[in-house]
Amino acid sequence: MARTSSFDLEKGSRNAGTAFLILSSLADGEKHGYALTKDVENFANVRLAPGTLYEALARLETQGLIEPVPSEDRRRPYRLTANGATALKEHVNAQAKVLAESQRRLSRHWSPA
């Protein structure tokens, strides 16, 4: 059986997508809430509501997947932890397998329109 990370425990929940988007954004460098929202909008075309974002940030921080970065102003930036990077890699690899299998099945049974 595959090893389960903290991030995998959210699999199937409505929060898994939000966590995946946040971890993906932070994989590119530290960001505060507004910058995270704009980045996710740009690369995924998904708008995270403030309540959804900050609830997910708190949960990810509690799980040790992200951590706050000291700041000189009122913004609170976050960065990915080593555990967060590992969890994100595991999730991406698992999703890549599902994507490949979906593509294989589509190409085998459905012709292009």
Summarize the structure.
This protein has four helices and two strands, in the order αααββα. The protein is mainly α and 113 residues long. The chain has one domain (8-109): Arc Repressor Mutant, subunit A (Orthogonal Bundle), CATH 1.10.10.
Helical fraction = 55-70%
Oligomer designation: single chain
In angstroms, what separates the terminal alpha carbons? 38 Å
Strand order of the largest sheet: 1-2
Judging from the principal axes of the Cα atoms, what is the shape? elongated
**Rg over CA atoms:** 16 Å
Q: What number of structural domains do the residues give? A: 1
Number of helices: 4
Q: Quickly give the CATH architecture.
A: Orthogonal Bundle
By helix and strand content, what is the structural category?
A: mainly alpha
Overall residue-averaged pLDDT value: 88
Proportion in β-strands: 5-15%
Listing every helix as H and every strand as E from the N terminus to the C terminus, the arrangement reads: HHHEEH
Instruction: State the fourth-level CATH superfamily.
Output: Winged helix-like DNA-binding domain superfamily/Winged helix DNA-binding domain
In the CATH scheme, the class would be Mainly Alpha
Point out poorly predicted stretches.
1-6
Describe this structure in words.
By secondary structure, the protein is mainly alpha-helical. The protein has a two-stranded antiparallel sheet. It has helices at 15-26, 33-44, 50-62, 82-109, and strands at 66-68, 78-80. Mean pLDDT is 88; it is low at 1-6. It has a single domain (8-109), classed as Arc Repressor Mutant, subunit A.
